[in-house]
C-alpha cells in the first residue's frame, strides 16, 4: 500500500499555512484618520514620518518614500550619476525589476555570477567585470539573505563606484548588526503586496549622505528640492515618484509589527536549516555568519538530485505538495537570458549570447523555496514541513516507481 500522498497515501497535513497579508484593526484606524484629515498626498505628515522611522529601523540617515521598488532603484541609479551607456554590475539571480531599473536609466546591466551554492552575487568575481564604464554595483539581498557587503564595499571604494543595494526582499535583514540598505550609498526597498512590509505598492530609497539624499529627493519630486536643502542644484529635475499618505499610514501601522515578525520568521528559518541539514539530498544555504538577521522573505535550500536517489527536483516538489507543503522554486532563468534584453527597448544595444554564469545556471535548476507567509507558521506547521521531507526521503523507492 502506498505511503506517500502523491501515490494515494495519507498526506502529512491538509490544513493551509498562514496567508498574507495579515490584518489588524490598527491598520484600519490609520486609514480613517487619514481620510478625515483630507491630507491624502503632498503636505501630509505620514510620508515624512514613515521615511524617518523606516530609515531608523534599517540604520540609515535618510529615507525617500516612492511609489514602487522599481522606482526606488531607478532614482538611486540616477542619483548615483549613472548615465546612458554606463555599466552597472549585478546578479543574474533576481527578479526582472532589478534589471529593468538599470535599463530605465539607459545603462547596461553587466551580470556577474552568484557564489557556489548561494543565491547571492559573488564578490570575488566582481573585479574582473569592472571596466572604465562601470558606475555602480547593484547587489540583491535575495529572499532577505544579505549579500557580502564587506567585500562589495571594499571593491566599490577601491574603484570609486557607487553601491545600490536591492533590498526589495530584505526588510529587517541585518549585516553585522545593522540593517541592509544602510551599507551601500543607496538601499532600495519595495512595499508591494507580497513583501514582508507591504502597502499594496510602494518603495523607499535609504541614503546616508546628505548630498545624495538631496539629489534623490529632487528626482522623486518633480525637481523640487528640500525646503532646507544645503546643496542646491543648478537645474534640479525629476518625475513624480511620490508615495501617498494612504500607503505611509498603513506602513507606519505595520512597521510596529515588523521587528517581532522578522524575529519569528528568522527563528523558523534557523529551525528549518537545522532539520533540512540532516536530510541527504537537501543542502541548506544558511545565512553568512556576518548576517546577524535574515529578512526571511523566503526560505532557500538546494536540491541535490543525485544524493536524493536520482529523484528530480520537480518530482520531489510534487511529492511535497501532495503532502500539503507549498514548497516551490523562484527563478528558473538567469536574467541574461531574459528575452526583453534583446529587444533594445531603451536604446541599449545589448547582446548576452556569450554570457554564462554556471553557478546561477545550477541554482536555477536546483533551488528550493518557501515563501515568507509559510515562515509565519506555528511550530507544529513547521514540523510538518520537516516531517513531509523526511517521509519522502524514507519512501523514496515509491517515488522511483512513480516516475518510472
Ligand atoms: C529583487 C526585487 N527587486 C525589485 C523589485 C521591484 O519592486 P516593485 O515591485 O515594488 O517595483 C522586486 C519586487 O518584486 C524584487 O523582488
Structure description:
With 404 residues, the protein is an alpha/beta fold. 35% of the residues lie in helices and 13% in strands. The chain has helices at residues 25-37, 46-58, 69-79, 96-104, 149-159, 210-220, 245-276, 313-322, 358-366, 379-394, 396-403; strands at residues 62-66, 87-90, 108-111, 134-138, 162-166, 174-175, 178-179, 186-190, 203-207, 282-284, 298-303, 367-371. The mean pLDDT is 96. The structure holds pyridoxal-5'-phosphate (PLP). Pyridoxal-5'-phosphate binds at residues 68-70, 94-95, 97-98, 140, 166, 168-169, 190, 192, 203.
Query: Beta fraction of the residues?
Result: 5-15%
Bound molecules: pyridoxal-5'-phosphate
Give me the side-by-side strand order of the main sheet: 1-9-8-5-4-2-3
- Report how far apart the termini are: 18 Å
Q: State the secondary-structure class.
A: alpha/beta
* Beta strand count: 12
Helix content: 25-40%
N-to-C SSE series?
A: HHEHEHEEHEEEEEHHEEHHEHH
Largest sheet: 7 strands, mixed
| Radius of gyration based on Cα positions | 22 Å
What is the tally of helical segments? 11
Question: What are the low-pLDDT stretches, counting only 5+ consecutive residues below 50?
Answer: none
Coarse morphology = globular
If you average the pLDDT, what whole number results? 96
Amino acid at each position: 500500500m502506498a505511503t506517500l500522498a502523491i501515490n494515494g497515501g495519507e498526506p502529512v497535513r491538509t490544513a493551509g499555512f498562514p496567508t498574507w497579508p495579515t490584518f489588524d484593526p490598527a491598520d484600519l484606524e490609520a486609514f480613517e484618520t487619514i481620510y478625515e484629515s483630507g491630507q491624502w498626498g503632498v503636505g501630509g505628515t505620514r510620508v515624512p514620518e514613515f521615511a524617518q522611522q523606516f530609515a531608523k529601523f534599517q540604520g540609515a540617515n535618510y529615507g525617500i518614500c516612492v511609489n514602487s521598488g522599481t522606482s526606488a532603484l531607478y532614482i538611486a541609479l540616477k542619483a548615483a550619476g549613472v548615465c546612458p551607456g554606463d555599466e552597472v554590475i549585478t546578479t543574474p539571480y533576481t527578479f526582472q525589476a532589478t534589471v529593468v531599473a538599470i535599463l530605465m536609466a539607459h545603462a547596461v546591466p553587466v551580470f556577474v555570477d552568484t557564489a557556489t551554492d548561494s543565491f547571492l552575487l559573488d564578490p570575488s568575481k566582481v573585479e574582473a567585470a569592472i571596466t572604465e564604464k562601470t558606475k555602480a554595483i547593484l547587489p540583491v539581498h535575495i529572499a532577505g539573505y544579505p549579500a557580502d557587503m564587506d567585500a562589495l564595499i571594499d571593491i566599490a571604494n577601491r574603484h570609486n563606484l557607487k553601491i545600490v543595494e536591492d533590498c526589495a526582499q530584505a526588510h529587517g535583514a541585518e549585516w553585522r548588526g545593522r540593517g541592509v540598505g544602510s551599507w551601500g550609498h543607496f538601499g532600495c526597498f519595495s512595499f508591494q503586496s507580497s513583501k514582508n512590509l507591504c502597502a499594496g505598492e510602494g518603495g523607499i530609497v535609504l541614503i546616508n549622505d546628505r548630498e545624495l539624499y538631496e539629489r534623490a529627493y529632487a528626482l522623486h519630486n518633480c525637481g523640487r528640492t528640500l525646503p532646507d536643502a544645503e546643496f542646491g542644484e543648478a537645474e534640479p529635475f525629476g518625475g513624480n515618484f511620490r508615495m501617498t499618505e494612504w500607503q505611509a499610514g498603513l506602513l507606519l501601522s505595520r512597521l510596529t509589527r515588523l521587528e517581532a515578525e522578522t524575529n519569528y520568521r528568522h527563528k523558523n528559518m534557523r529551525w528549518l536549516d537545522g532539520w533540512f541539514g540532516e536530510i541527504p539530498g537537501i543542502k541548506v544555504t544558511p545565512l553568512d555568519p556576518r548576517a546577524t538577521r535574515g529578512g526571511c522573505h523566503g526560505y532557500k535550500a538546494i536540491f541535490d538530485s543525485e544524493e536524493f536517489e536520482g529523484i528530480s527536483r520537480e518530482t520531489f516538489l510534487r511529492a511535497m505538495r501532495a503532502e500539503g507543503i507549498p514548497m516551490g522554486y523562484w527563478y528558473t532563468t538567469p536574467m541574461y537570458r531574459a528575452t526583453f534584453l534583446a529587444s533594445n527597448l531603451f536604446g541599449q544595444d545589448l547582446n548576452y549570447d556569450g554570457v554564462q554564469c554556471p553557478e546561477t545556471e545550477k541554482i536555477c535548476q536546483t533551488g528550493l523555496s518557501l515563501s515568507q507567509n509559510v515562515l509565519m507558521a506555528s511550530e507544529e506547521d513547521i514540523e510538518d514541513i520537516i516531517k513531509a521531507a523526511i517521509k519522502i526521503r524514507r519512501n523514496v523507492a515509491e517515488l522511483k516507481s512513480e516516475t518510472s
